[in-house]
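Note to self: the last two entries modelled the partners one at a time, which told us nothing about the interface. This time every component goes in together.
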Amino acid sequence: MTLLPLLFAIYVEGDDRDLAERLKRREPAAMGELYDRYGKLAYSLIYRIVRDTGVAEDLVQETFLRVWNRAQGFDAERGALGPWLLAVARNRAIDYVRSSGGKMTRGALELEAAEHPTVFVNFEADVLSQDRARRVRGAMDRLNENQRHVIELAYFEGLSQSEMAERMGQPLGTVKTWVRTALKNLREELREKAITA
Amino acid sequence: MTCDELRDQYELYALGVLDAAERAELDEHLHREGDPCIEGVRHARELVSSLASLAPQSPPPARLRNKVTGLVAEPKRMWSWTLVWIAATACLAVMAVWLNTSRREEQRALARALLDVQSRKVELARLDEAFALMNDPAAKQLVFGEGAPKPRGRVFVNPKQGVLLLASNLTPAPSGKIYEMWIIPKGGKPLPAGLFQSQPNGTAMYLREGAVDVATTGAIAVTLEPEAGSQAPTTTPLIVAAL
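The predicted structure of the combined assembly is written out below.
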């Protein structure tokens, strides 16, 4: 298990770098590889948010096309392709849910800033590794129900703390405490596990 | 606010759920080179990226891969090949139509030429007969319409070969009508001698074959008759050539 991040860094990240270069060169075959690598994860994430297979399919296409069109601005040497693509996928899905629910969506400038490929640089190589995924799930399991709930509302529904308070019928201060505690626990658990790993 | 005070907001910033004012404050820090918030937000983004693994695995439909790769398939090449095929098929179709049309046109032209040759042969034969009749010393030449505006010409009466009419200024018979030649015996009723039509330019050549008794014939006449012809003249003669 201790070798996994290293192997990931050597094989997966190396491949991502090459893949990113090919995307920048606009090689159509690279799109297929990008899908093979992140299609299932992107679809699962989008489907979890929108809960509709047809919409999820459309948003996956939109996500991959957006990445394809913006690959020129991606730093193939230092950039994290997977996290970037998943951020685009999440933003597309949350925006869809918010707009179909009649809520304010984020502005184009805000989205542009949140998804800009230069944001996803110098990431740890194992951000999307199986091992880290297990650690994240373990850390979530150790949160109490309210803490877990606010993290899910924030990540899968994109709710602000005020919106969460309204949704849960709880005072804003209470919700902020849950959020702060949950994120602190997650942060520390992942850091501790990473050190011990 | 200091970076220490903003620390709790790094993940919320990365999650995109901060209010506009809070976000703007953190944005300011992120634009300062070397600001500790930059590293903190990077770690927060890593954490947020990892949360994707919380989504239950849902296998995408197999068709989705084709849809995604189809978004960036090389349209130019695909189109160019499609265009090549369309162009080739169109060319073949045009060629086939053209060949078929030109073949039919050639067939029609050939048929027209054959008809023309045929009619020229008939005309030549008629001219041969006409010359033979005219050049026969026994033939009697009659002139009609001299000095008259129309119609005018000559009639050759050959006792053995028949009667030849050459006329000009003879307007083509109107629809439903035709010209009929009459051989009028001296003191007798006119005998029908055949039907003919003049050319659009007003000329006419008609040969009535068969022996003619010149001694008993008083005149050759032409009248305008119904298309089927008549047994006796029904109109005033247009041409009268007396022997």
